[in-house]
Amino acid sequence: MVIATSTKSGLIISPSYFKPQMRWLLSFTRISDLSQLIGILSFAAFLQLELFWVKVEREMGMMAGISSRCQ
After folding, report:
1. CA 33, CA 63: separation in Å to the nearest integer?
2. What is the per-residue pLDDT across 4-19, written as a single tens digit (0 to 9) for each?
3. Degrees (nearest 5) of the Cα angle 48, 55, 59?
4. Which candidate, 5, 14, 2, 8, places its Cα nearest to that of 55?
5. Percentage of the chain surpassing pLDDT 70?
6. Whether pTM exceeds 0.70
7. Long-range pairs for 11-16: beta carbons < 8 A, 24 or more residues apart
8. What is the spatial distance between Cα 13 and Cα 10, in angstroms, rounded to a whole number?
9. Could you tell me the CA-to-CA distances from 24 to 6, 32, 41 in Å, in that order?
10. Within 13 Å of residue 47, how many CA atoms lie on the same side as its CB?
11. Distance from C-alpha of 33 to C-alpha of 62, rounded to nearest angstrom
């Protein structure tokens, strides 16, 4: 999910993140304590949500120069 914010200077700063991923973890030894569910060999774990900021600067002159070269 990206939430974009623009300013008068053309600067866009938006928070972005990857969705949580689930992984199955295998146990090397069987759980033997009755209070810990006998026989469980694997369980699921969710990775931590990664949050970072994306900063993009747009300059109209630079974009016009690139588009004129492509034509």
Report:
1. 65
2. 454 555 555 555 555 5
3. 160
4. 14
5. 0
6. no
7. 11/55, 11/56, 11/57, 11/58, 12/54, 12/55, 12/56, 12/57, 12/58, 13/53, 13/54, 13/55, 14/53, 14/54, 15/51, 15/52, 15/53, 15/54, 16/51, 16/52, 16/53, 16/54
8. 10
9. 40, 20, 10
10. 11
11. 66
Mention every residue, 6+ apart, whose C-beta is less than 8 A from residue 21. 46, 47
What residue spans define the domains of the chain?
A: 16-70
Contact 25, 45 (CB under 8 A): yes
